[in-house]
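Risk register update: the risk of archive-format incompatibility is retired. Evidence:
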Amino acid sequence: MHESAFCVYDFRRAKRSGCVYVRVSCLALRNVNCVIMTDTMIHLYLDNCCFNRPFDDQSQLSVRLEAEAVLFIQQTIKEAKVALVWSSILDFEIRKSPFETRREATDEFRKLACFIADVTPEIEQEARRFQSEGLAIIDSLHLACAISAGCDYFITVDREILKNQVPKIAVVNPIQFVHVYEEN
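Archived output:
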């Protein structure tokens, strides 16, 4: 059995330069898996609450609809129709979860991410600005990571985040994103 190790290029540089982003298995180039992502591909950042939505109590219609939308988005990620951006903040939140099933399910998507944003001083500064506007620290860091990575959409079911207008990125709930995605 062969394990795959992926060669990951700097997503931000590739997106700005218009280059094609490629993820290739590096194990002796035997089972080469290529996912070609162009700068025209939609780049998403899913808040941790999105990954958890399918596990939430589905008795409320709004929760059930959001869960269905999240599952649709996750399928588009698996099919490489959109690009997922990850962050060290997602890693931190996932490790804190007491639910092993959720941790494992969410961690599977980390492997599909085209870029993992680490918190830098610039990201911390941007997060402090969001905090000054009333967002919680963890939410501020998620948003700042998504913006720093050049994401097109920040997808969340967190009502507090959705209330804020962020000029550098489209902040939408999963249902809104599905509408946008299906129109294109």
